[in-house]
Amino acid sequence: MKEQLEQRLQKLRNELASGQKMVAELKAKQKNLNQTLLRIEGAIQVLEEEIAKIEEDDFAETLDFSKNKVKSLKNLVQPIHQTIAQEQSSTNQLTSDKLTSENSSQG
User: Fold this and answer.
1) How far apart (Å, rounded) are the C-alpha atoms in residues 54 and 92?
2) Is the torsion defined by CA of 85, 86, 91, 93 positive or negative?
3) What distance separates the 2 farthest-apart alpha carbons in the chain?
4) Radius of gyration (C-alpha) of the chain in whole angstroms
């Protein structure tokens, strides 16, 4: 009976040692997995920041392009406005001269 108990005790000790070894291996795997996940999270963060920078640069370039387009359009439109203003001024002067002439001949 004692011999059977000692054999059973030895089996249990072996199982305990085996289980502890498995736990240690799993903890090591968990540690490695956690480190891998941290690296992945860091890489994700860097990529997100880079994408945000690119989007900001693209937006800034678009704004600069738009500003340059507006300046170009102003440069095109300004002479047209000046010409229209001159023509309106000439038309107003002709109308005024005509009215003055008509008033003089009626009087």
Assistant:
1) 55
2) positive
3) 151
4) 45
